[in-house]
Amino acid sequence: MTRVACFSLTLFFASLLALGGCRSAAPDPDYVGEDAHAVAPKPASPPAAADPPRGFGGSRSTHEFMPLNLGNTWEYKKTFLGETGTLRVTVERKDEEGFFIDSQGGKLKHTSMGLRDENRFLLLEPVETGRKWSARVAVTVVEHFEVVEDNATIETPAGAFEHCAVVRSTTALTPEARMINEVAYAPGVGMVRTRTSIENNKKRQKDQATLELVSYTLP
Predict the structure, then answer these.
(1) For residue 213, what pLDDT is reported?
(2) I want to staple 136 with a disulfide (CB 3.0 to 4.6 A). Which of 28, 115, 128, 171 is the partner?
(3) In 40-156, which ranges are continuous DSSP H helix?
(4) Torsions phi, psi of 12, nearest 5?
């Protein structure tokens, strides 16, 4: 993905990131910040007897929020600077490194630590509100991630999705401005909504780009 118009399943609009110089150097895909909470997933506590386990050991797993299988298809309504269109993404193949590659060129895979693309972790195990990590996408540019909700209800053209995880990432563009991405993942469905905006002098502007799920097929 090299232009916003070519949204990929990785969701983090590379052309906007380029405003902050993210293409100036090769990213470090294994950098997840200096927060020990982000580096090592916490041991899962046993679930309550009345509550059936979810994910790994009762924790909510990244697998739950982003199903990756050949043939999975998502269709989105996309909006960029007021212009609208549609985007259809289909998982087409799996490469030798275990990445699932979609029809837009996006590459995702699950590891023992979480969901990642080629450059960064998009979700870390376990998925829970308050979880934070960082990703170095260039020598001097770092994305900061936080799970801001893990039980949200998200309204989309495809319907309302409950128990969603919402991940917010921020990237400095200038000393006064930063880009904010918010991505919502629905259990058993995948990404259902993204919002990208610019914050200047701590004042958040109107969303610059959005994706909203219209339909999906998970064979």
Answers:
(1) 99
(2) 28
(3) 62-65
(4) -105, 45
